[in-house]
Amino acid sequence: LGESRGAVWNWWTLYDGKWKQDGASVSVFKAVIPVGDNTKLALARNSLKRLRGLKHPSIVSFRDSLESADRSNVTFYIVTEPVTTLASFLSLDELRGEDMTEVVACGLRAVVSGVSFLSNECKLIYGNL
Q1: Burial letters for 46-75: b for 16+ Cβ neighbours within 10 Å, e otherwise?
Q2: The sheet that has 73-80: what strands, in order across it?
Q3: Are 72 and 34 a contacting pair, CB within 8 Å?
Q4: Who has greater pLDDT, 39 or 7?
Q5: Is 77's pLDDT higher than 90?
Q6: For 3-36, what is each residue's pLDDT tens digit?
Q7: Residue 31 in contact with residue 15, Cβ under 8 Å?
Q8: Does this model's pTM top 0.85?
């Protein structure tokens, strides 16, 4: 694993990585869940199963995964196309000024498109959306 980008969602941490076969940049999501936490384990396994089958321009592309267990924890690794956190993206110097409005509008449209796909096509519901 490369540099940690920090916690990105609940118990998932984002890392930079390199794909062994060709050296391409990837992102690695890592979650360490206690063996006895059946709710989180089931949610992590279900999330992995769902992501594996999703194909849409506004949904991150799945590349590979690994589930590894020891006596006290189960560790999940999900490898995807390279991604960055929203906070990192918005702090880029190139996005200052008028361009920022267009970039945010385009990003918001992509998020809406992805959520629409998940809700309408996949029949997945997150929270109260």
Answers
A1: ebbeebeebeeebbbebeebeeeeeeeebe
A2: 4-9, 12-18, 25-34, 73-80, 62-69
A3: yes
A4: 39
A5: yes
A6: 777 777 778 889 999 988 888 999 999 999 999 9
A7: no
A8: no
Average pLDDT, stretch 74-94? 84
Three-class SS string for the chain? CCCEEEEEECCEEEEEEECCCCCCEEEEEEEEEECCCHHHHHHHHHHHHHHHHCCCCCCCCEEEEEEEECCCEEEEEEEECCCCCHHHHHCCHHHCCHHHHHHHHHHHHHHHHHHHHHHHHCCCCCCCC
Residue recorded with tokens 């799945």: 62
